[in-house]
Amino acid sequence: MAVDPTGKDLKRLMDEDPGGPVVMLNLLRFAPGGQDSYMEYTRRTAPFLKKYGGELLYAGQGSTALVAEEGQAWDAVLVVRYPSREAFSRMVADPEYQKVTELRTKALTEAVLQATVPWGKG
After folding, report:
1. 73-97: per-residue pLDDT in tens?
2. Helix, strand or coil, per DSSP, at residue 121
3. CATH no., domain 7-62+72-116
4. What is the distance between the alpha carbons of residues 30 and 76, in angstroms, rounded to a whole number?
5. What would you report as the CA-atom Rg of the chain, rounded to the nearest whole angstrom?
6. Domain ranges of the chain
7. Tens-digit pLDDT profile for residues 43-68
8. What does the DSSP 8-state code read for residue 20?
């Protein structure tokens, strides 16, 4: 299962840019013992969020899945706002940020990272 965006993914993100801020939905499934690694990743990436104008709007543990097929429940959900897709792209391309991404990669077995567009904008 994919957990990290590829260059092709980032190109598509930019090609489909409607402009303005972007809110990224993160759905996470942890590897055994991966939550600690992910928490370290979030601690070490906080300065990058600030540097590129990002803001963590919400982070929480998955709980009761009311409407979901078996296997669709997630361990954690994060919602992060960036001033633009360009800011997000610059952050993930930052060489210093890249040094920390292995913490995220090893923490997860599956992830969804989806850009959202405000209704009426896309």
Report:
1. 899 999 999 999 999 999 999 999 9
2. coil
3. 3.30.70.100
4. 8
5. 14
6. 7-62+72-116
7. 999 999 999 999 999 999 999 888 88
8. S
